[in-house]
Design goal:
Layout: H1 2-16, H2 24-38, H3 41-59, H4 61-78, H5 82-85, H6 92-99, H7 102-112, H8 116-128, H9 132-142, H10 147-154, H11 158-172, H12 177-186
Helix pairs in contact: 1-2, 1-3, 2-3, 3-4, 3-6, 4-7, 6-12, 9-11, 9-12, 10-11
């Protein structure tokens, strides 16, 4: 259990970082195989979902498609849908929209009982509340730029960018840069 929870925590943290620590996905893959062989399906499902999302982010959607498709099959068969709704993230739909291969996004949304079209409309409405400068900042955040890089690109101080970010977080009702970038991608 300790090995599992430690690895799961490292995987979740890696989703908020720009890149994954070396060997992390290999460790997850090895543990997944052990869970599959032992029939520990709930552990397998939870580890597989987060691992699949991380693979999608780091290696591309096609690389994650087999694992995430198998995970969704097991979730449907087992009825353990709460594994998706209990993900340690503010907005499960946003996470799936950002990292789940497009071939599986609608299927995952259906499992969660989410209207993906309504979610997209909500994101569009929230982004319209931003000023032009705030939209520029969000776009640069979505490109993975730091506050210092954004400040240089827009010829302002890093403190100005921090102020814009606070305003963006409040208007979009998000807690971090990744969530703001996801909203931009969904809109």
């Amino acid at each position: 259990d300790r090995e599992y929870f430690a690895l799961l925590a490292r995987l979740w943290l890696a989703l908020d970082e720009d890149c994954c620590e070396p060997g992390l996905l290999e460790q997850a893959s090895a543990l997944l195989e052990r869970f599959k062989a032992s029939g520990l399906w709930l552990y397998y499902l939870e580890l597989g979902v987060v691992g699949g999302l991380l693979i999608s982010r780091d290696q591309g959607a096609n690389a994650a498609l087999p694992l995430l498709s198998a995970e969704l099959d097991l979730l449907e068969q087992s009825g353990a849908i709460s594994l998706l709704t209990d993900l340690p993230t503010q907005d499960t739909c946003a996470l799936l929209a950002r990292l789940c291969p497009s071939a599986l996004q609608q299927r995952a949304a259906n499992l969660l009982g989410i209207d993906a079209t309504a979610q997209s409309e909500h994101c569009s409405q929230a982004l319209l509340a931003l000023t032009v400068k705030e939209r520029q900042v969000v776009q640069l955040v979505a490109e993975g730029k730091s506050n210092k890089q954004i400040a240089r690109d827009l010829n302002v101080t890093p403190e100005t960018i921090k102020s814009h970010m606070k305003s963006i977080f409040a208007k979009l009702k998000v807690d971090n840069r990744a969530q703001a970038a996801v909203m931009l991608q969904q809109a």
